[in-house]
Design a protein that fits this description.
CATH superfamily of the largest domain: Spore Coat Polysaccharide Biosynthesis Protein SpsA, Chain A
Largest sheet: 8 strands, mixed
Number of strands: 8
Low-confidence stretches: none
Order of helices and strands: EHEHEHEHEHEHHEHHHE
Strand order of the largest sheet: 7-5-6-4-1-2-3-8
Number of helices: 10
Mean pLDDT: 79
């Protein structure tokens, strides 16, 4: 029987919630059957193990040996969330493909409602976070600032307050498969593809168990991936900052000459010179860092290494 829905779930060290995770997906499949959207034999849930070091893999593999809808793709090491999702998309067979994180903050049962929305003629139904339970004010504020800032400096209409929780048509997934970049920002890539897309509002739950796999350092790195993948504005800002520094330096030079030859003033000490050197030197170092980030990303892309390596795939024979 052909697969109608594939659900891609990246997991990394989630042994504390694997049992609940499997139970919730079983409930999701029951909801799909109850609403006559599809049978359980037309659904596959692909768990992508992103190099877990705990019992996550063994728990998922044990379940996959008895459940036809559960499949496990085991990556050779930790490649990161976006690459793990990409691996799941590559292995998916469904006419529709859902992406959902493995921390149960996004309710799997809502996938049925998103599918109903897709049947109105959409290629993408993406989740819009109406409420973000138990998330700190700092995280909510920085997320809001990032997405609004990114939207302002790019030509791509990236929806606000969204994550990777979404359902996509097969042609959108196939289009993503043609985009081989290493530094991936999937929610931006889906927006870039186009087609008919719509938001689906929902309340995001608190994490069921365990700790977040996205500390501040990873959040910053992810934000930089989104910024450099979809905008060259940082490079333009460097040029404008350079013009500004030159302009300030020019007027300061005029002032020094005026003070020396007209007012007959001599500059006492070297404080102003030191300050100027420090400011200009700082601007130069920051500029080189931004340029180096773009160059480094090109270096990674030119290597043309595979996005990920699969150690094994676990599923019942078809």
């Amino acid at each position: 029987m052909a697969i109608i829905l594939s659900v891609v779930v990246p997991v990394f060290n989630e042994e504390d919630l694997v049992t609940e995770l499997l139970s919730r997906f079983a409930s999701m499949i029951s909801v799909l059957e109850t609403q006559s959207l599809m049978s359980r034999h037309e659904v596959e849930v692909i768990f992508v193990n992103d190099g877990s070091s705990d019992q996550t893999l063994s728990l998922l593999v044990s379940y996959s040996l008895t459940s036809p809808w559960c499949k496990v793709v085991d990556l050779s090491r930790n490649f990161g969330h976006q690459i793990a999702v990409t691996a799941g998309l590559d292995f998916s067979k469904g006419q529709m493909v859902a992406i959902i994180d493995g921390d149960l903050q996004d309710p799997p049962e809502l996938i049925a409602d998103m599918i109903i929305k897709m049947k109105e003629g959409y290629d993408v139904v993406y989740g819009v976070r109406r409420v973000r339970k138990q998330e700190s004010l700092f995280k909510r504020a920085t997320a809001a600032l990032f997405y609004r800032g990114l939207r302002a400096i790019t030509s791509i209409d990236i929806p606000l307050d969204t994550g990777d929780f979404r359902v996509m048509s097969r042609r959108v997934v196939d289009a993503l498969g043609q985009m081989p970049e290493k530094h991936r920002f999937l929610r931006g890539m889906v927006s870039w593809i186009g087609f008919k897309q719509i938001g689906f509002e929902y309340d995001r739950d608190a994490r069921f168990a365990g700790e977040t796999k996205y500390p501040l350092s990873k959040m910053i790195a992810f934000a930089l991936d989104g910024l450099t993948s979809f905008s060259t504005m940082p490079l333009k800002l460097i040029a404008r900052l350079g013009y500004l520094v030159v302009l300030v330096g020019f007027f300061y030079a005029l002032y020094v000459l005026y003070a020396a030859f007209v007012l007959d003033l001599t500059v006492q000490g070297w404080t102003s010179i030191v300050l100027l050197v420090l400011i200009i030197g700082g601007v130069q170092l920051i500029s080189l860092g931004v340029i180096g980030d773009y160059v480094g990303r090109n270096h990674v892309e030119l290597k043309r290494r595979p996005l990920y390596i699969v150690r094994d795939v676990y599923a019942l024979p078809e």
